[in-house]
Amino acid sequence: ISRSTFYLHYDNVDDLTDYLEKELLYRIEKLLKKEQHIPLEEFQNQTFFHLLTYIDSHLSEFQFLISKQDSAEFIARLSNIIENSLTNRLQVLGYHIETYKLAISFAASGILNLMISQIKQNLPETKQMICFTYNELIYEQYNTARFLIFPNRQFFCLNCKNFSKSTVFCA
């Protein structure tokens, strides 16, 4: 685009950068809110996959924002959106949020770091493999948190359909 066209829409490069940042964050927040009422298993697989697909489709914009010298503010806003989305999702499912603050923070930082690694193209794995690995880690972490909070409680194993004291998945 020509210089005159650029300045017709933006005051300066920082104005364009601010617009780009707000637009990308708005779209991510919208994506996460749109899929908030689907079943938990689909939410963990489908939503995270859609998030990674969105990043892929706007990779150059994300790379630009991550590489900026003052990218910490963008990353903090992104982290906040992810954490709020996870918090809202657990509230929809009826969880007591105060009990799961550490788990939410852990999950949000994991998602954020995977997103940043994808943006920097540090991950050779496919989006499907990233989602699968992330979900396995989240299930294990979630059950560890539940076990620490409710040490005498038994959990239902999703594999063998029996009760276990330590994990959702038996060996």
Q: What does this molecule look like?
A:
With 171 residues, the protein is mostly helical. Helix content is 70%, strand content 2%. A two-stranded antiparallel ribbon has the order 1-2. Helix 3 runs parallel beside helix 6 (101-119).
Give me the secondary-structure topology:
Layout: H1 3-9, H2 13-34, H3 40-57, H4 59-67, H5 71-92, H6 101-119, H7 127-149, E1 155-156, E2 163-164
Antiparallel strand pairs: 1-2
Helix pairs in contact: 2-5, 3-6, 3-7, 5-6, 6-7
* H/E element sequence: HHHHHHHEE
* CA(first)-CA(last) distance: 59 Å
Tally of contiguous helical segments: 7
* Poorly predicted segments: 167-171
Largest sheet: 2 strands, antiparallel
Approximate helicity band: over 70%
Per the principal axes of the C-alpha atoms, what is the gross shape?
Answer: elongated
